[in-house]
Amino acid sequence: MPDTELTLARTGGRPLSRILFSTEQIAERVREIGREITEAYPKDEELLVLGTLKGSFIFLSDVVREIARPMEVDFLIASSYGGGTVSTGEVSLLYDSSSVLTGKHVILVEDIVDSGTTLNRLLPQLRTHNPASLEVCALLHKHIARDLVLEPRWVGFDCPHDFVIGYGLDHSEYFRNLPFIGVIQP
Length: 186
Hints:
The chain is an alpha/beta fold. The chain contains 4 helices and 9 strands, in the order H-E-H-E-H-E-E-E-H-E-E-E-E. The longest helix is centred in the first third of the chain and has 18 residues, at 23-40. The protein is globular and about 50 Å long. It starts with a helix and ends with a strand. Pfam families: Pribosyltran. It is found in: Cytoplasm. Keywords: Cytoplasm, Glycosyltransferase, Magnesium, Metal-binding, Nucleotide-binding, Purine salvage, Transferase.
């Protein structure tokens, strides 16, 4: 099946405006981030990689396989979108990590930083658990958030202000399975 037909099949026949980041571009950047994280922390100190579900699950899965050191992996479920394409401004924490954060180097993995609402809600809450350090790793950053409590230390790609799907990112729970990141035509 040609690439165009395969893409249409994966999007339920809904055409994409464009592909922003290819499978190959994503894989290369994930390898680079994994190397950078490996080098950033002493191997004898505890590392906890904490993913925000659902959007970060594919990115987190690929990144942790590129980190060449022992680590713990856990998840949070936070939502600020509901079924829409714009953040509601309200963050619901549906599942909190069961891991102990105290004394560990914690990396919060996000799929996308846009309004900053999720990060600004989660980071102060995580700091109350006294981690040794707290950093953010984001697949995409739109650079539109005002007054972020912490800028991501690692960013996969700068992202335009479009609504993006694929590689874990969804629209109403669909399109997470796309191996690339693209923009759906309105």
